[in-house]
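Feature request disguised as a bug: please show the residue count (199) next to Glutathione S-transferase kappa 1 in the output. Example input:
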Amino acid sequence: LLSCHCFFMLQVLCRYQHIWNIELRFRPAFLGGIMQATGNKPPAMLPKRAEYLLKDIKRMAKYYQVPIQISEDDFQRVLGKSNLGAMRFITAIDMTEPQYLEPLSREFWIRFWSQHEDISQPENMLAVAGQAGLSSEVAQKLLEMISSPAVKKQLKETTEEAIKYGAFGMPAVVAHFNGEPHLFFGSDRLELLGSVIGE
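Example output, currently without the count:
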């Protein structure tokens, strides 16, 4: 969730789903779990790469017309914040009201990357749910679900499934085409994805 590149990919895939006539299914997975299981490290931990990333994210935000406001301080903010609660909240919505998964995810990203809010706070999760169109009763129920064994188990299973497909970071997109899964990593692989599915 904290990856701004996931925000780019979400926006682009949603724009292309009807042009390419593809069926999108969003699968909440925990980036921290994927990184730990594969031995990967956040790219922003490398000073020269962080310097480049800052410029690159700004260019991508302009190109994709995605409202991301980023500075050097944001890398430390990302590395220092846990998004596990928000990921469990999104998992709970996927389990109960999956039609809200896309708007809820988008609202979380906007609040984190454009408004620099702490999305791990319960009151902010409830505000995100309201903005995505959920009633306060449903939002409160989702908030109560995030500590349940069922939600924890579901998020763990989805994360493990992503790793089985070969994911080592996010965004990870798996295209099922002609009975075969194709993994694409990163927000700049749209042309390759299109090539594989014949678009």
